[in-house]
Amino acid sequence: MRVKSLHIVFSALAILALTSSLALARGGMGGGQGGCPGMGGGWGQLSPEKQAAFQKLHDAFAAKTAQLRADLGVKMAELNALSVAATPDQAKIDAVTKQIGDLQAKLLSERTQFRIQVSKEVGPGVAGGGCPGMGGGMGGYHGGGCQ
């Protein structure tokens, strides 16, 4: 009898623990109507004309910065290779690090110009930078931070 009672008590506690953990679950990336800019939240509130205007600006920005982003990826891979070499050359690492910083500065400048242009032509907050912790893209080079 005592073993059966303990079994029932522990089973009830296990079920309680499993079901109560659902209360701690966080919402998905969603966004929907509202939400963080850059996560689809404001997109549904734009007219089809504004969506087309944004898409045209975004496509132009992507084309304009494609080589810059590719160069940045190459330099990041080069830095990784230099860093894990059997005998890392600090001078080369410093030089590549500076080149990466220069490329990131150029990309940030282009991104800032893009966001200003989108704000003027489509509306403020449409080209937002993503949500905190999401990074917005590989390596975190494509935004970050709700506005």
From TrEMBL:
Statement: the UniProt record of this protein carries the keyword Signal: yes
Signal peptide residue numbers: 1-25
Keywords from the UniProt entry: Signal
This protein's name: Zinc resistance protein
InterPro entries found in the cross-reference section: Metal_resist (IPR025961)
Matching Pfam families: Metal_resist (PF13801)
Record organism: Solidesulfovibrio carbinolicus
Gene3D superfamilies in UniProt: 1.20.120.1490
